[in-house]
Design a protein that fits this description.
Layout (H helix, E strand, L loop, with lengths): L4 H25 L6 H21 L5 H26 L2
């Protein structure tokens, strides 16, 4: 499936909404200790799914590669946050 024009714009906006919801869940979890690990796991799974799509598609743009690099850094930070949460109990 090739997305161009308005189809691509719709998909990108939808991704933005999903990332916004996940960000809101991460903020909410900061105030609900019982939700921290599940929300962090959800965030990591989402980022790993995107990375697997990028790694299996050889013809992506450099901008997609930059987003992938950001997601790798975000995963590292999420793992640090999860470790800090789990060791602070």
């Amino acid at each position: 499936m090739e997305l161009v024009g308005e189809d691509l714009a719709i998909m990108i906006r939808h991704r933005g909404v999903l990332l916004g919801l996940l960000g809101a869940a991460l903020i909410y979890a900061a105030f609900r200790r019982d939700l921290v690990v599940p929300v962090i796991v959800a965030a990591i799974v989402g980022k790993l799914a995107f990375l697997s799509l990028v790694w299996t598609e050889a013809n992506h743009s450099p901008e997609v590669g930059q987003v992938a690099a950001f997601d790798i850094a975000a995963i590292v930070l999420l793992l640090i946050a999860a470790a800090a949460h789990l060791t602070s109990k």
